[in-house]
Design brief:
Elements lengths: L1 H28 L4 H24 L6 H24 L4 H24 L5
Amino acid sequence: MIKLFSRYISVGVINTGIHWLIFGLLVSVFGYGQAISNVIAFLIAVTFSFFANARFTFKARATGKGYLMFVGFMGLLSFVSGKISDHYNINPLITLIEFSAISLICGFIYSKFIVFRDAK
């Protein structure tokens, strides 16, 4: 399980970089709110993450159903995180850190036991 989680973290580092870069551009350069910026950045980064984790971490076949399940669950988590941050006027950097930690743990558990549960 530790080896599996280590692989998940490796993919997560790249995923987080993609997410943070896009989130930062949308908030700072384009002036979008945190909720919508977090969702857009997430959707782009999660596509990379899903396929990389299917192949590299879980050695599983990436399916459309699995992708939709993962994106739906994690997208909702992303939106709620951003919405709470908007409501309480939380600094975008804090939002990124908070969401990255939450999505790392929740994403791994959800992937392992729901999306890729049949993987060997």
